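Hi support team,

I submitted a single chain yesterday and got back a structure, but I'm not sure I'm reading the token output correctly. Could someone confirm the output below corresponds to the sequence I sent? I've pasted both exactly as they appear in my results page.

Thanks,
R.
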Amino acid sequence: MMLIHGARSVIHRATQRTDAHTWLVKLTTRRNNYVAAPAMANTGARTVWALLAHCREFKSGYAAARCGIDQTDSKGEPYRRLLRQPAS
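Hi R., thanks for writing in. Yes, this is the structure output for that exact sequence:
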């Protein structure tokens, strides 16, 4: 519930800006604000879950790595590969 209220506030501020190139402003032009608010809240919830699940801190300029590349978690253990291995 609080995430949706926060999303409504973000939508209100985003629609008042002159820069209309964000995905949120484009979404609000296609859909109602009552549809855009849960979409924004869902994006925030998924981000928070991923940060908590992987014990990471939020970085504003973070770019996600490509799926399938071997990486290690905070404990140095490798993640499972996300792409399927070719059948032999």
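A quick pointer for reading it: Residues 1-57+66-88 form one domain. Let us know if anything else looks off.

Best,
Support desk
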